Amino acid sequence: MNLKKIAVQWLRYINILSLDVVLGSVMAAIFACKVLDVEIQTWWLVVIALTVWVMYTADHLLDAWQGKEQLKIRRHSFHFKHMKRILPVWITAAVTSIILSLLELDREIIYLGILLGISILIYFGAVYFNKENRPYFLQKELFIALIYVIGIWLAPIAWHGVNPDGMILMIIANLVLLAWAEGIIISWYEFHEDIADKHVSFSVLFGKNISRRFIWFLLIMVFVFSISGIFFIADTMTIRFAFSIELLMGITLMLLISFPNFFKEDDLYRYVGEGSFLLPALLLLI
Questions:
Q1: Is the separation of the CB atoms in 79 and 15 below 8 Å?
Q2: What is the tens place of the pLDDT at every residue in 147-188?
Q3: Residue 102 belongs to what domain range?
């Protein structure tokens, strides 16, 4: 086996287990702390990593369980095949995250986190009971993007002690748009596999053509917000660099939707898409 095959295999397992998403969430958490100029808490990064892995793995397990053995998407079939091994790890991670949160987080953040957790449970319950005819408002890619970004920024905003201004809200909105766009891009690439697995993704709900146009709409919004932030809104080097990073993330996702034949090979679209969320780590350079 040559080095390329070994590298692809490792990347595939990292992606299947959502470890790239976890690393991206840690980078996004550091990004949030740097933007708001608050101290980075190591234990909190652990909580973020565990919570994101628990949420994403729960989604994959639910998709796998609903699809049973007839699964085309590699991630779903992997989670179905190894469900008995994954579940104990999932439970341990969830319990550890809860205990760390209760021991370390302020009461106000805990209450907000509980509300966030309840909304996640309600969502998964709604998805389960509407698995055949899922309504448009149960749009998974948007929900995950919102929960991902809100969950990461919740504690830093509370520690900041001041309501975020329009500039910060624009940075946060950009991240929601980027996470949403990346989720739809994945569903766009895996359109036929999702149909085969009876997986109701954005692209299955709205079709590939509308999905592609909507992805471009989201990314153009990111482009406009980022350019506005860089040249007209940012009042510090940190904020200007933050907008620049988001612009780079948006351009990366634009490449995915522009050259599908290239990025389809060896599931490169997944690695590049998730990898774009490692770019916020660049804010550590200043």
A1: no
A2: 999 999 999 999 998 999 999 999 999 999 999 999 999 999
A3: 19-277
Closest CA to 129 of 71, 66, 189: 66
Q: 77-110 burial by CB neighbour count: b if 16+ within 10 A, else e?
A: bbbbeeeeebeeebeebbeebbebbeeebeeebe
Q: Which residues contact 37 (CB under 8 A, 6 or more apart)?
A: 160, 238
Task: Give the list of residues 6+ apart from residue 159 with CB closer than 8 angstroms, or none.
Answer: 36, 38, 39
CB 150, CB 85: distance < 8 Å: no
Residue 7 lies in a domain: no
Determine the pLDDT at residue 105.
Answer: 82
Q: Which residues of the chain have pLDDT under 50?
A: none
First to last CA, the chain: 41
Within-domain flag for 43: yes
